What does this fold into?
Amino acid sequence: MGAAFFYHLTRQPLEATLPTLLGKARQAGWRVAVRGRDATRMEWLDETLWQGPDEGFLPHGLAGRPHEADQPILLTTSDDIPNGAVCLMTVDGAAVAPDEVTRLERVCIVFDGHDEAALQTARDQWKALTAAGCSAQYWSEASGRWEKKAEA
It folds into this structure.
């Protein structure tokens, strides 16, 4: 049974934090799906990841393109996960179902702490997932380093 980890961004933007989280997931040997809500935003993330440092290159691709099932990291707006990911990372308030949390090794919900709508979406997701019996952790970077602030 997996767990949902909520990452509250207050110091670093998504484009700085996501590569770190993806790198850790890949080090664990996990295939990853990154789910967003907007195709244009996912294309931007794709370009951003391609521009990362050579030594930390994260092999990835966009859903709907050739070889999507072969991608170790797949960027998508769909509920389908065709690359066999065992870790799902959501951005920009993308939906997560309780059965995904229990089926996958890890679900990471990354949200912008400077956006009130994003905060409310994350709160609602926390309530829904924990009410469904999912294990959850809340992580904050407010102190300058990541710290676990809550667990359910």
